[in-house]
Automatic annotation (TrEMBL):
Compartments, as annotated in UniProt: Cytoplasm
Membership in a protein family: Belongs to the ribonuclease III family.
SMART domains registered for this protein in UniProt: DSRM, RIBOc
Presence of the UniProt keyword DNA-binding in the record: no
Record organism: Coralloluteibacterium stylophorae
DRBM domain segment(s): 150-220
Protein name: Ribonuclease 3
Pfam families reported in the protein's UniProt record: dsrm (PF00035), Ribonucleas_3_3 (PF14622)
A Gene Ontology molecular function term of the record: rRNA binding
Gene3D superfamilies per the UniProt record, alphabetical: 3.30.160.20, Ribonuclease III domain (1.10.1520.10)
Gene expressing this chain: rnc
Amino acid sequence: MSDPRTSFGHAFSDAGLIEQALTHRSAAGRHNERLEFLGDALLNMIIAEALFARWPRADEGAMTRARAQLVREATLATLARGMDVGARLALGPGEMKSGGHRRDSILADALEAIIAAIYLDAGFDTCRRVVLDWYAPLLAELVVGKVEKDAKTRLQEWLQGRGRPLPVYSLVDAVGDEHDKVFHVLCELADPPDSAPGQGSSRRAAEQAAAAVLLARHEGRRKSGAGAGS
């Protein structure tokens, strides 16, 4: 395995920064939560700036959807796996036994922490260069205005287009340790009356999952010709 100090497209001057970035809260020592907070903000800024420059005629909605797709947990986790971040993580015994090094939420958080570590070690210009190198293939694949809206937005528009009440999302439960919760929500429709559960590593992710179930259910009925009132 390569040295993490010279991995990820940057050679660290301060080895302590990358060590902290790769240390999960469950492990002993300084962990990466504060770095994750900073890295999240930096990533959003870098991707927003890149989209603004690449898509001079795109409207705010198109750029917002593209950014959301690029910075979401699943995308970050995929990038982290490509860089073998999981194998380098310092985890507590419980997280090691439960396969924490493979979990999307932990991998995504670690990658955000690495972004912050690069920024603190070498400044914004270097950080931006490295992040854009990671994202180059993903940015190249995006087509202006063709990024699909998220499930909550599409469900809302589907209902509004039929003059029906908006969905109601309620938190059913949140289980697990404070730093690694799984959220369970319920999405309910008044017309047509229906509901679906969803779960995710954040409340928003769980709401998106529930909305996707309902959207697929009712769009499927429409395409099959079943349920004329749907």
